[in-house]
Amino acid sequence: MTAASVTARSVTPQDLTITPRDRKFARERTPAHWWNGGDPVATALYNALSATFPEGEAYFVESVRRFKDGTPPKLAAEIKAFTTQEAIHSREHAAFNKAAAKAGYDLTPLEERVHWRLSFSRQRPPVVALGATMALEHFTAILAHELLKDRHHLGKADPEAAALWKWHAAEEIEHKGVAYDTWLWATRDWPRFKRWKVKAKVMLFVTRNFIVDRTLGSLELLRQDGITGPKAVARLLWYMWIKPGMMRRIFSAWLKYFLPGFHPWNVDDRHLIAGFDLSGDYGQEPVKKVRGAKAA
Question: Which molecular-function annotation in GO is an example for this chain (predicted)?
Fold first, then answer.
């Protein structure tokens, strides 16, 4: 398969610009202990997510860059911009995690679990690591979509912390197709069914680990707040799956990953980040579909 045919299988918008925004957060003032609306459960879940990003996003960069050589020029440029964005994300979540530590949380157990997971993954072939990155990038993109679509998720959050998460979400949407297009390039000689089978199996494995680890990490942070036992589990599961139910709300977008012809840019949700560089405000127009070639 030629570079031109691989490019044709991608539906990434031709006019897409991936723009690294070098911003700094949580430097001058430490967010409150329960920075997300005074809610220990909401704070625990977002802190547990943040604990994954410094090492996790470095892993994403490592996995994608292994396949950069020989890629079509447009994809090579997108990989470079992706790398820069992710490096800044790692830096800013490291700063945010230090702020959480100053606010009284010990994120060490969560960070150690991330390191353990990634150490295991690094023992697999590079293309499997790329597949894991592609799956996790889909997770972050659909989480980002929901976060920006519904203002209630961060509506009562500390402004500085909310700004960090919205900035991160905007850039996750912007570069959501890079790992997937790199996967198409890396597996360009694979039969189509093999490509689908591997990406599906990796996504199921990643999903299990993502949900289990973020749940356990959140419960650990709740334990540090003295919230334990069945009450802690019930409150967390209610928050994750019922109200506001972030995990429930992203389920249909997650499921589309397994459909023939899936590509992250089948849904063009750039309207959610329109005007971000000017005001940080986001549009609320209905999501528009983009028709493209089958890429599964």
Answer: hydrolase activity
